[in-house]
Amino acid sequence: MTKLSMRQTIFAGLAAAAFFAAGPAFAQGQPSEGSGERTPPGGIPVGPLTAYPGIDLAHGYDDNLFLRPNNQSTSSYTVVSPYVRAEAKTGPHKFDIGLRIDDGRYHSSAADSYTDYALIGNGDMVFSGRAGLRLRAEYRQGHDARGTTDAAGTATPNQYENYGIGGVFRYGAAGAQGRIEIDSSAFRRRYTNNATSTTGFNRDTTQLGGTFFWRVMPRTELLAQVGHTNIDYSLGTSTQDSTENRYLAGVKWEATAATTGTAKFGWQSKKFDAAGRQDLSTSSWDVGVRWSPLTYSVFDFVSSKQASESTGVGDAIIGKNYGVTWSHAWSSRLRTQALASFRNDAFTGAGVTRKDDTTSFGLKVAYDFRRWLRLGAEVTHTERDSNDSTLNYKRNLLLFTVGATL
């Protein structure tokens, strides 16, 4: 698929999300008393759509801008993020389209300032009580902050465009003993600056997969999942082209009103087209559990293991991640969130022995000063311990936020 045809596909998908949004806009539900949920923002009727504009402002301080073990660079920074999301419903179908801009300014390192944006459209179509289709098209302009990848050093962050389209077709009524989901996507990433160090990272990724669910109890389903991914690098001399296969089996449950979760375990393989690269075959898993001991207090536990693309070192990265988040509403206006995570990255490839352990802790506080005005603060500490001591670092981020809607 050419670059032009890919873009045409994406924007056709985004346009379809808006075009098919005929009929009255649907209202969001109101929070229950004492639940700690935020009151929905006000919307602006625009024909069959309802638009929800807003803006987020953030000012913070970063004490290790480039993730160095010593001689750290520090800077305060400001991010202004206007956004708008339009929603609508026609019959059983729901559609939305949104645009968000993130403009970040580093006051002691102007070269690292950026302007990112994302345009995303979603469609959820219900054909019958058994069949439905979810579509998503997106176009993003983003950047890799300096120090966050293993690419060669540059004077400015590497900027990229990431765009594509994906969907999930589902067949099987809610509550049926058996149901199936088929998912597919195609995405393209193209770097737009620092060509000497970024051209080799341009790639197209296509994916096809399916999941079969079998209900064994009223609130418990067994599942079997298979996925195939093809990764094609655009540079003709690249040796990183590969195909991946992933096979998982597990369970999805809602044991009680307080506990829900999904746990999948299995195997992943990655085979490179080039003989000089090292193929891999490893265990893989995805686990997510939510425990709500109280309606206003929620714990989320996640763990995963999966191979990802190299960012400049070795052939691939096998990452294991573990995390927990505690979200608590102290009142209808005051909420906190405590986060902790641990990640182990093992780099694969001939002669490559690098291993990184990254630990992160954070605390966020949000206060609804008015229905339309939210104040917040957050602090995060991150530390990487690598068997290559030149890659160790410690980083502290402090951030103050203001969010406003209608």
Counted by DSSP, the helix tally is 2
* Helix/strand/pairing category: mainly beta
Give the averaged pLDDT, no decimals: 91
Q: Outline, from the CA principal axes?
A: globular
Low-confidence stretches: 14-36
* Fraction of residues in β-strands: over 45%
Q: How many β-strands, per DSSP?
A: 19
The amount of helix comes to under 10%
| Gyration radius, in Å | 23 Å
* Biggest sheet architecture: 18 strands, antiparallel, barrel
The H/E string reads HEEEEEEEEHEEEEEEEEEEE
Structure description:
The protein is mostly beta strands. The protein is 5% helix and 64% strand. The chain has an 18-stranded antiparallel beta barrel. Strand 18 (373-386) and strand 19 form a beta hairpin. The protein is globular. Residues 14-36 have low confidence and may be disordered.
What's the structural blueprint in terms of helices and strands?
Blueprint: H1 3-19, E1 44-46, E2 49-62, E3 75-90, E4 93-106, E5 114-126, E6 131-144, E7 158-171, E8 178-191, H2 195-198, E9 203-217, E10 220-233, E11 242-256, E12 259-272, E13 280-294, E14 297-309, E15 316-329, E16 334-348, E17 355-370, E18 373-386, E19 393-405
Antiparallel strand pairs: 1-2, 2-3, 2-19, 3-4, 4-5, 5-6, 6-7, 7-8, 8-9, 9-10, 10-11, 11-12, 12-13, 13-14, 14-15, 15-16, 16-17, 17-18, 18-19
